[in-house]
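ok trying this again, last paste got cut off
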Amino acid sequence: MKGLTIFLLILCFSFISLEAGAQCSICTRTAQQLGEGPAKGLNAGIIYLAFTPLAIGSIIGYRWWRQNRE
């Protein structure tokens, strides 16, 4: 069961990374056209938008780990 869970997680992360890789070039090109000041704002916005889902996933993962550890 544990091996299947790890396999499914790796599979999901591989699909997520394919889509994220495609978006990187678009963001990079946009940032290059904007200049230095707006590019820093764009980077800060990307980090701000990515923080909430990562925080929620981390909290759920920690609670799941803590519950299964006992």
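PB: full thing came through this time. The chain has one domain: 12-69.
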